[in-house]
Amino acid sequence: MDPELEAFLPLFPPADLDDPVTARKNFADLAAKLPPPDTTGLVIEDRTVPADPDVPVRIYRPNEARGALVSLHGGGFVMGDLNTEHPWATRLAGLSGAVVISVGYRLAPEHPFPAALDDAYAVLAWTAEHAAELGISPDRIAVGGHSAGGGLAAAVALRARDQQGPPLCYQLLSQPELDDRQETWSQRNFTDTPWMNRSKVTASWRHYLGSAPATPYAAPARATDLSGLPPAYIATAELCPNRDEDIAYGLRLLQAGVPVELHQWSGTFHGSQAILSAEVSQRQIAELGAVLRRALAD
Fold first, then answer.
1. Domains in the chain: boundaries
2. Which of 39, 73, 278, 284 qualifies as a cystine partner to 80, CB 3.0-4.6 A?
3. Which residues does residue 173 pair with via DSSP β-bridges, in sequence order?
């Protein structure tokens, strides 16, 4: 493990999702300890997207943005909200020059699949319909997220393709949670890794799926056809249970003719980019911004 990251391990709360209420509080407390992001040059606005039910969003608008990112927060489908995502959405908007639309989707287990996906897809449709108001080109809309949010982003891309929905130009997938089966080497062997481990992933999927069967819209790795999807950037962490399913998904996208940029970050663990003082974390965040800027400028 990167020594700069290892020094912070005692500060992380237990990797446990058995009590969702406590897990949410721990996650919110952890996010609140981050230094406040620089909001210079950004107009930040809370809105509500009409849906059934309505979906809260927070919109980050830089000057003269060309495209937008529908951004889905991490948290194992159970944790996270617009406030925990605020530091990352702010930084991503500033680094990329994109309008970032952060989605406050419904959380499991109170709202299992497909609630979060329905919320995310409703925001994508709203973004496309309101492109002129947002000051963006309707063909320059990307979807992305971290962890569970990355899995949701991949599912949104699949649904948009299958239902001839709003055209997406890019997928920005950071350590995405893609496969409920947990059959890969990293899922079987990473039982005590920091922040995210096998048992926490198991609990995450149990809460998210509820009694519903796993479909490709819930677990995108189950999709048999990945052709026709938008180009993707996939970032993986070396000491993350999701690592191998993410790499496999990237390879399958490539084999289906989808352009993919795949970066495996050595010495990192799931969510370790939150340790902003670490040099590797700074590089990870800078790269996400640069990749999105380039994708929306094409």
1. 3-297
2. 73
3. 145, 234
Closest CA to 239 of 290, 208, 273: 273
Peptide bond between residue 109 and the one before it cis (omega within 30 degrees of 0): yes
Cβ-based neighbours of 174, under 8 Å, separated by 6 or more: 74, 144, 145, 146, 147, 150, 235, 273, 288
Whole-number Å distance between alpha carbons of 137 and 155: 23
Neighbouring residues of 298: CB distance < 8 A, sequence distance ≥ 6: 169
Helix 279-297 to helix 82-96 angle (10° resolution) is 70
Task: Give the tens place of pLDDT for each residue, 161-176.
Answer: 999 999 999 999 999 9
CB atoms within 10 A of CB 41: 11
Q: What is the pLDDT of residues 69-88, one digit of tens each?
A: 999 999 999 999 999 999 99
Query: Residue 257, exposed/middle/buried by CB under 10 A (0-12, 13-18, 19+)?
Result: exposed
Sheet strands (E) in the chain = 42-49, 55-62, 68-72, 99-103, 141-146, 170-174, 232-239, 260-269
> Distance between CA atoms of 234 and 221, rounded to whole angstroms?
13
One of 2.60.40.1180, 2.30.30.30, 3.60.10.10, 3.40.50.1820 is the CATH number of 3-297, namely 3.40.50.1820
| pLDDT 10s digits, 184-199 | 999 999 999 999 999 9
DSSP state of 169: -
Do 241 and 229 contact (CB within 8 A), yes or no?
A: no
> Tokens 């670490």 label which residue?
278
CA distance 285 to 277: 12
Residue with tokens 């709203």: 126
> Would you say the pTM of this structure is higher than 0.85?
yes
